[in-house]
Amino acid sequence: MPAIQATGLTKVFKTFDRRPGVMGSLRDLFDRRYRELTAVAGIDLTIPRGQIVGYIGPNGAGKSTTIKMLTGILRPTKGTIQVAGFDPHRQRQAFVAKVGAVFGQRSQLWWDLAVGESFDLLRHLYGVPQEVFDARLKRFEPVLELGPFLRTPVRKLSLGQRMKADLAASLLHGPEVLFLDEPTVGVDVVTKSRLRGFLADLNRDEGTTIILTTHDMQDIEALAHRVVVIDHGAIMHDGDLDGLVARYGGGRRLKLTLSSPVALGPDLEEPGIAWTQTSPVELIAALDRDREVPAVLQRLLGRLPIADVAIEKPSIEEVVKSLYGGRAG
Question: What single string gives the DSSP state of each residue in 95-143?
């Protein structure tokens, strides 16, 4: 059985369409108008156990709504969901023992309790044996460095500290499926690297299925086995990163270092190549997707005094920006 199975998953929100002005407000008292907004439009999603999936899309694409349905926070308008063998909404009590979640700016910890007290309360709620609880905290310590703020109230934590504490809280009961929303926001570069390594180890050693939503494409590159891109409530891409780059990334770039200065001229112009000169001895040729690097490079070697060449593929950030079509991520 897969870790997550969603079929025809749909969420439609019904919103009040308010009329303008005083007279409009009076009419709304007796004759309310509503409009429907489809946030998720019948998606099918199957995620095998033990997979790390990057679930990305621009703001308003439907990714947060999808995650809220998968975690049982929202009830689907249509469609079926099975997560870790349970219906998230109808089998809530049994379901929450099998999943963990970190939702960006919303903490699952008690605001006025110390971090350690919150952890102990969660231990009792999930029925985690003391020795298992202690062993898990000990495993978290080298990466999350919880010790210095275990006795600090949650409300006094920095954003980075709170993200660490929330991640630990989501893992105390050993969930089969882990939902992460921006897990590295607010943490320094060194801690980001440690968190990524920790999550990769968790996936490898315990087979934890991880659903990752983030705007940090380095998280996706470092962790995701698979990338699902959603926009306007529908899945636009479902596959690996190489497939995403091949489909939406455009062509490669040639960074040319010359042995003597050269000025760009009409003799270098040809369809499918966009030139940029960064210095008298440095040129960049951006190739369209259908232009083959060896053929282009062979022609350039006969026209330019090339001393060195570097071939670059589009970065994942560039690919996603192109895919979103200018919409905010």
Answer: HHTTEEEEETTB--S-TTSBHHHHHHHHHHHHT--HHHHHHHHHHHHHH
